[in-house]
Amino acid sequence: IEKIGIEVGNQPRETLKSFYNRQAQKPDLVTNLGMFGLNSAGLPCFSLVSNHKQYAYDGLRTEGFGITDNNELLYGEHKERDWKDFCSAYPMLIKGGNKVNITYATELSSKTKRTCVGYDNNNIYVICVDAPGATYAELQDLGISLGLQYLLNADGGNSTCMTCNGEE
After folding, report:
1. Mind listing the pLDDT tens digit for each residue in 28-63?
2. Which of 87, 88, 158, 160 could form a disulfide with 46 if both were Cys (CB 3.0 to 4.6 A apart)?
3. Which tens digits make up the pLDDT trace of 2-33?
4. Are 63 and 94 within 8 A, CB to CB?
5. What is the Cα 80 distance to its own chain's centre?
């Protein structure tokens, strides 16, 4: 991977195809991360940092993944360091190789389309589940079977999508 990053699309609600098309260096993979508010601005809920600029922070849901200036993807807390990019989880599914006992976001735990990001000691995984979807428990089982050390639920519902080399 040459670069991994979290970019904020043109608001409100730029499509992945539009985002891909306007990039000078075309990314191999584009997916939506961060659950967004239903306000007219379409900004994400919880915590989001892109290129060292904070776009959202609610002080409650602050654990997730950050990207350092050295292009490392790491689990962490929003305010624990100066992240280049950061997206909070809603919720974390696996931490330290173990399933998380999910105590929040249970209202969204039903089977639905989802985008998740995880990693093990050697690989980064982006998991995009299409219809009929997956539950948190099913994603935890998948992550454990893959040997993931960390897995976060990043998006869910009908907005979940991905492009690979510009194709959905």
Report:
1. 988 887 665 555 555 556 788 999 999 888 777 789
2. 88
3. 678 888 888 777 888 999 999 998 999 888 87
4. no
5. 18
pLDDT at 47: 84
Give every CB contact of residue 30 below 8 A, 6+ residues apart in sequence.
16, 19, 20, 162, 163
Rounded to whole angstroms, how far apart are CA atoms 81 and 113? 31
* 124/93 Cα distance (integer angstroms): 15
3-state secondary structure of 67: strand
| Residues 43/55, Cβ–Cβ less than 8 Å | yes
Identity of the residue numbered 133: G
Tokens 């009929």 appear where?
132
DSSP alpha helix (H) spans, 11-135: 16-21
Residue 151 contacts residue 23 (beta carbons within 8 Å): no
What is the C-alpha separation between 1 and 123, in angstroms, rounded?
A: 10
Q: Which two tokens stand for residue 54?
A: 């904070």
Structure confidence at residue 44 (pLDDT): 59
What letter does residue 107 receive in the DSSP assignment?
G
What is the pTM assigned to this prediction?
0.87
